[in-house]
Design brief:
mainly alpha
Amino acid sequence: MVAMLKVFGVFAVVVLMIRKKVPLGVSLVSGGVTTAFLFGMGPAETILESIEIGSQPETGNFVLLVSLVLAISIILEKSGQVSRLTDSLKGFVANRKLASATLPAIIGLLPMPGGALFSAPMVEATSTEMDIDSHKKAEINHWFRHVWEYSWPLYPGVIYTAGLLKLDVKEFSILQIPMTIVAIAAGFTLVTRGVKKPASAEATECRSRRRAAARFAFDLAPFLVIIALYLIIGISLLWSLLTALALSIAFNVSRKTITAQQIIRGIFTSTHYLNFVIMAYGVKLFSGMLDESGAINEMTTFFAESNFPTLALCVALPFIVGFVAGITIVFCTATFPLIIAMPGVSADPVPYIILSYASGFMGTMLSPLHACLALSSEYFKARLGKVILGLIPAAIIVLATGFALWLLYRHWLPF
C-alpha cells in the first residue's frame, strides 16, 4: 500500500506541474527524480542513474526519432505545405462532411503540439454550408485529429510502447490498426451523427478536380515516402524519417517556399522543439526510474498480495492517469511498466497493453486537460462539458474494440 501511495504521489506531482503550465519534459524529468527520492535513492545515485539512462542506446534512438518527427512537422507547417494539402483536398472532395473530417485527420498525421488549433479554421471553412452547431464542429475537429494516434508510427506513444514490449514499431502499429479503423468508423457514424450534407455542393470541372487530386498526392509525398520505405519496403524508421526530412527540405527549398536559414531557425529556435527533446528524455528517465528505484518491484508485490482483478487495473489505471494528465505519453510512461510487471501479465503482456492503450487513450481524449480538446472548444466557442458528452459514445466503441483485441491477441498474435 505504501508503494502505491508513493507512485500516486509521483503522478500527482507530474499532473500538478502540467496543470501549472510547466513544460511536459520538465514535468516528466521531475517525476523521475521524485520517484528516485521517494524510493530511497540518494542524490549521487539519482544523478548517476539519470546519466546511465540517458546514455542507453534505446534512449538515444527514441530522442532522435522524436526530434526527426518534429523537424518534419515544423518544415511542412512553416513552408505552407500543410495548407496546400488542405486546399487541394477541398478542390476535389465535393462532400463537405467528408472534407470536414478528413482535414483534421490529415493534420493528425503530424504529431505537432496544438494541432487541433491548426485544423480548426479548416473545419470552420468546410462546414459553412452545413447545418452544424459549434459543439459538433469541436467534436469533429478533436476526434478526427487523433484517429491515427493508436497506430501511426510517428507518435511518441506508439514508439515508446513498442520499445517497452520489445516489438518493432511496425509490428506494434499493425496490432493497433484495428483501433484506428474503428475510431474512423465511430467518428463517421457517431461523432458526425446529425450532420447533413449541404443541399448543393460546389461543382468543379473534372479536369480541375484531377489537378487538385494530383497536387494533393504531390504534397502528401513526405508521408507516402515514410509509408513506402518503412511499412512496405522495411527500411528502418530512422532512415525512413531521415529520407523524408531530406526530401522535404530539398523540395521546399527548391520551390522557394522556405529558405535553409528559415528551416534552421524554425527548428533550433523553436521552444516546442526543445520541449519535445526534453520530453523524449523525460519519458525514458521516468520509466527507467520506476524500474531502477524498485518502485515496480514494490508495486508488483503489492498487487500480488492484493485482491484487485488484474484486468480491472489494466483498464482503470491508464484511464485515470490519461484523464487526469490529458497527455498520451504520460499514461504510457506512468502505467505501462507497472502493468507489464503485474502477476499474470508479465508472461504475455501484449494483449493487456493493447487494452490499456485503448483505455488510457480514451481517458486522454475525454480529458478537459487535453490541449486539443480545450483549444477546439475555445475556438468554436463550445461548452467543454457538452463536447465531452458528445464524444463518449464513440469512446465506448473504441474501448470495446480494445477488449475485443485483448481476447483475440491472448489466443493469437501474428508475430
